[in-house]
Amino acid sequence: MSLEVVNIHPNIKINRSRLKKFIKDKLRELNVKEEEINIVLTDDEYIRRLNRDYRGIDSATDVLSFPMDENIIWGDIYISLDTASKQAEEQNWDLEREVKFLAIHGLLHLLGYNDEDEEGYNKMMELTEKLLG
Q1: In this structure, how many other beta carbons lie within 10 angstroms of the beta carbon of residue 27?
Q2: How big, in percent rounded to 5, are the helix, strand and coil portions of the chain?
Q3: Within a 10 A sphere around the Cβ of 117, how many other Cβ atoms?
Q4: Taking a C-beta distance cutoff of 8 angstroms, is the pair 1, 32 a contact?
Q5: Distance CA 49, CA 80 (A)
Q6: What is the Cα–Cα distance from 96 to 105, expressed in whole angstroms?
Q7: Domains of the chain, start order
Q8: pLDDT tens digits, residue range 75-115?
């Protein structure tokens, strides 16, 4: 079992150990034992390429999740710190809170939640807010 947080953003730094502890705590709250989860903190250009190559959408986004196996929690979550910074400013909260919000959102996707329709979106947002506390 492994949870790794890697920051490849050239300029923005986040306390990786605090984010890792936060996500481990949320996994316990959800009664999930992680198998292997990687959270990669990156920039808009990197996440734009992932979005283009894997989803056919040639634009940056805030978070992407790539589940590797539907039977266990195993996958990668990519978070753009550029977009997270803009969204944090728009929401009038700090970057760490926004990154936690996006990490939970990505984690829920790894757990099988889907926000493609209004019902799924509302369910994910409600659970995300609950987990943020």
Answers
A1: 18
A2: 50, 20, 30
A3: 9
A4: no
A5: 12
A6: 14
A7: 2-132 (3.40.390.30)
A8: 999 999 999 999 999 999 999 999 999 999 999 998 889 88
